[in-house]
Inverse folding.
């Protein structure tokens, strides 16, 4: 009986050790970092798409058109599926106006943010995910301003105050190798720019519109594993 108890105890200890080692191996081989680069379309909706530059004696339509966006992100895996990271996106938009003085001026967004992403990894090479983000928009909007030095009006890419932003979306990642692949992502983005202001020659200009955007990104991503 004592021998049986000893054998059972040894077997149990061995099973526990094997389980711990297996868990350690899984932990060692877990992805711990993702790095991505992406580009695509940024589609304005309402707000910034309907922007009108207003003054005492003028109203000029300055709505943003669909533009091009670029970005990069880096995130750390909190567990096997959940990622916390930071990203930076930049987009540029032509102006929906016929004023010849606009020339090559464009609306621009510089957006750093923090994101939380949840992957659904499986046996397939495809991994869908959901994503939320919060950050700060740093906008430059084409605005008609008064040039007090020349005594006339001029068009200018005017820097406005940073504003709080947030959004949500999702995507689909496809493995092209063991630790890298391609992804397609769509995000809705809201910037609280309705009360943001810009200034030129001590005069203040109000934006008075929210920044509602839809980002469609195609990119490449690399995972870094603790097992390598």
């Amino acid at each position: 009986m004592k021998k049986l108890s000893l054998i059972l105890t040894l077997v149990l200890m061995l099973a526990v050790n094997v389980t711990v080692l297996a868990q350690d191996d899984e932990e060692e081989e877990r992805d711990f970092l993702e790095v991505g680069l992406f580009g695509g379309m940024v589609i304005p909706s309402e707000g910034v798409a309907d922007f009108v530059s207003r003054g005492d004696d003028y109203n000029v339509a300055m709505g943003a058109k669909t533009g091009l966006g670029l970005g990069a992100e880096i995130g750390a895996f909190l567990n096997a599926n959940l990622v916390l990271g930071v990203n930076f996106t930049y987009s540029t938009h032509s102006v929906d106006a016929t004023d010849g003085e606009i020339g090559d001026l464009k609306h621009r967004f510089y957006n750093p943010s923090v994101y939380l992403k949840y992957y659904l990894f499986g046996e397939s090479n495809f991994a869908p995910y959901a994503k939320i983000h919060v950050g700060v928009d740093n906008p430059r909007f084409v605005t008609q301003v008064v040039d007090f030095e020349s005594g006339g009006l001029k068009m200018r890419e005017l820097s406005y105050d940073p504003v709080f932003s947030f959004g949500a979306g999702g995507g689909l990642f496809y493995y092209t190798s063991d630790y890298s692949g391609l992804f397609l992502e769509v995000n809705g983005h809201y910037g609280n720019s309705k009360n943001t202001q810009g200034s030129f020659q001590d005069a203040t200009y109000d934006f008075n519109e929210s920044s509602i955007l839809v980002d469609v990104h195609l990119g490449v991503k690399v995972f870094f594993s603790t097992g390598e």
